[in-house]
């Protein structure tokens, strides 16, 4: 049975689920999810800036050097002006993924994306962070929630 733990710290609610297994019936290979983590941001109404990235959620996950990590993110936000937002995922404060979304003024939006981190070179505990930043000065948007970041370590 999977082990579940819950940790509360700062403005984040983090849940861990470890040791789940799935089997691929097509080629009879077994893929193992070593661990699964969720960071759920509890703070709402966070204005974004063009001057700096705003960290929306973070989590730590322990990996082997030959593992991949499946990352998913969901962010609820609203634009005040026409705006382009840059969403990033960082591993240990280094950008590994970036995507952008542009919308008209007064638009409510939920943005979701996934990324597989396949370039993990070091065994150990890694900090993954989800950030958002307005691309152009003079544009405005606010994160209203939900904000969810998940990470699943996949044994190769």
Provide a descriptive summary of the structure in words.
- The chain is mainly β.
- The protein has a single domain, classed as icosahedral virus (Jelly Rolls, Sandwich).
- The chain is 0% helix and 71% strand.
- It is built from no helices and 11 strands.
- The protein has strands at residues 3-9, 12-23, 30-41, 46-47, 54-63, 68-79, 83-91, 94-103, 108-117, 124-134, 141-155.
- The strands form 2 sheets. Strands 1, 2, 3, 4, 6, 9 and 11 form a 7-stranded antiparallel beta sheet that branches.
- The radius of gyration is 17 Å and the shape is elongated.
Mean of pLDDT:
82
H and E string: EEEEEEEEEEE
What percentage of the residues does DSSP assign to strands (E)?
Answer: over 45%
Note the main sheet.
7 strands, antiparallel
CATH top level assignment: Mainly Beta
| CATH superfamily annotation | icosahedral virus
The gross shape turns out to be elongated
Provide the domain count. Answer: 1
Number of strands: 11
Tally the helices: what do you get? 0
Proper CATH architecture: Sandwich
Based on CA atoms alone, the radius of gyration comes out at 17 Å
Briefly note the structural class of the backbone.
Answer: mainly beta
The percentage helix is under 10%
- Low-confidence parts, pLDDT < 50 over ≥5 residues? 1-28
Query: How far apart, in Å, are the first and last alpha carbons?
Result: 22 Å
